[in-house]
Amino acid sequence: xLELQDICRSFSGKQVLHDVSLSAERGKLTGFVGxxxxxxxxxxxxxxxxxxxxxxxxxLDGAELGSQARSRFGYMPSERxxxxxxxxxxxxxxxxxxxxxxxxxxTTRAVDLLTQLGLSERLKDPLEALSLGNQQRVQIAASxxxxxxxxxxxxxxxxxxxxxxxxxxNVLTEKAASGAVVLFSSHQLDVVERLCDDLxxxxxxxxxxxxxxxxxxxxxxxxxxxxxxxxxxxxxQNHSGIRTDEATENRVIFRAEESAAxxxxxxxxxxxxxxxxxxxxxxxxxxxxxxxNDSAPTLPQEATR
Amino acid sequence: xxxATVQEPTASSKTRLSTAAATRLVxxxxxxxxxxSKSFIISTLITVVIIVGGIxxxxxxxxxxxxxxxxxxxxxxxxxxEQQVEQSGFSLTSADSMxxxxxxxxxxxxxxxxxxxxxxxxxxxxxxLDEAPVSAAxxxxxxxxxEVLETDGADSMMRYxxxxxxxxxxxxxxxxxxxxxxxxxxxxxxxxxxxxxxxxIPARALLAGKILGNSVVALLQAxxxxxxxxxxxxxxxxxxxxxxxxxxxxxxxxxxxxxxVLIASVFAASASLxxxxxxxxxxxxxxxxxxxxxYFVVLIFLDNEFAMTLTSYIPFTAPVSxxxxxxxxxxxxxxxxxxxxxxxxxxxxxxxxxxKIYSRSLLKMGQRVKLSAAFTSND
Lengths: 305, 379
What we know:
Chain A: Belongs to the ABC transporter superfamily. Chain A has helices spanning 40-48, 67-70, 88-98, 103-116, 132-144, 162-177, 189-195, 213-219, 258-271, 284-294; strands at residues 2-11, 14-24, 29-33, 55-60, 63-64, 73-76, 150-154, 181-185, 198-203, 206-212, 224-229, 242-247, 251-256, 274-280.
């Protein structure tokens, strides 16, 4: 498990991270969401040791995070970057060697990985000659070539076509399944919702909420219910203690306290067969909006860009 | 630092690279990408052709000591005179009569006819076809014996060319590689690969590798240039020049290494301050000045002993100025050693400073990083 404890960081006098504490478990996909300038990239760079924290602790599996452990980190920065004129295989081999592999092992790993990603035909082409989607695959290879057991990905899905999104998804799921820590940030909350197990919400340099995705949905946001019946449901709108959000003849979505909802259900059963009654959990975007509205409305400027 | 080995998966030969090993890898990449680039190969070839061609051409047009023997025909001169003529560097044909000789001249087989003439100061008479046989006449001319008093001092022409050569080689190579380092650094920063690199190796290894790699390339270029010059001199038969150059040449190479590392550090640190190629102008100018100064110093102050002595101790100009002074035999034996010491010391200092600036500004994107900000940052 990767843990951060009370990490603070300022840029030229302006504090951008306030006592950030978070944890990402092995075997799980942890999503890291927040608005622009919320501190995601800075946090990730600090985890990677690319930036130093002003204060705070970081641990991996209980041990203080050092450079040895970090050599097993894989990183995909938000703005993708590799050498445009360098040949694909050579490039990945070079990165593998920087991570400490011997020349022959690095070459084998690079070629295997690129082949796995469907780039066997392009090994000797310079990166800039590849299509954007293929460049993205090379970027993935760059973050995976040293067999990392902690993957930190900054906006891995931004600017990807659906095929590439699936490709990245598969890679991340596989990595997590093999017991790696996978922490990724994203603006695309629907993707995060579909994919991640755990969720960390950051706003204005502070952790706003963290935990299991479903748990978060249950605990936060407004609880709503969906009721469907074969009978006409138009009477529901006049029922006391509830507020309908959507209503058609056979289906309503309403907000209510638990007891009022149960009362409504009983009434409905008496009027006809109920085909569906479920609590509707808020979507991540709703929770996210709730949180970010609560936090300071002024977005700090991106200090690291 | 403690390590986390709770879930160490499959064993592999991978270990965290030492800074030295990382530096070596970065340097190798710098060298191989540059040496294999088309622009490098082509510009090197052109340089070689220009240097060799230039020197050979100058030697060919300017010199005259080993021209081909001039073919002449002799007629009616004594054995003694004939021998003398032959020794003066002519290829001789003997003709039995004046008519036969004239025929040879008209056919273009020979350039002149040499006959005896008691009135001539050297006893022979030269006949040309349609113009006076000047070159042949020159060759026959009597020259007084010549001697120079200070034979070990280089002659002024050679001296000038040597100074120019040292200055130009240093400037060209430093400028070329300096710009290369700058572009490389900004490129890495601009396309953010620097983040991936820094997550694998420390910034100082990246900087050191860059400097090392480019210094090797630069030295290689300087050696190619020097080698071409030597080849040119050898081809045009100016070997005496070569012998004279050898000692200062060695010192030049010795000075070149720390001198170049110094320049490279300045370029790398300057480049790390900006994040776009478009912004490179403002940080490149000061570095460029440093590169051009040594050349202009020797160009302007070559005959000003004080200025040359002074600049041969200033680290940025020492590689060129001291080499010129050594070539002139104007320096005491300990002077290059002292100057070298100063240079190495300065280089070490500037490198440390550059490493600080470099590692602190490498991840700051957008606006140009102010030097003061680079120093006060705590990364």
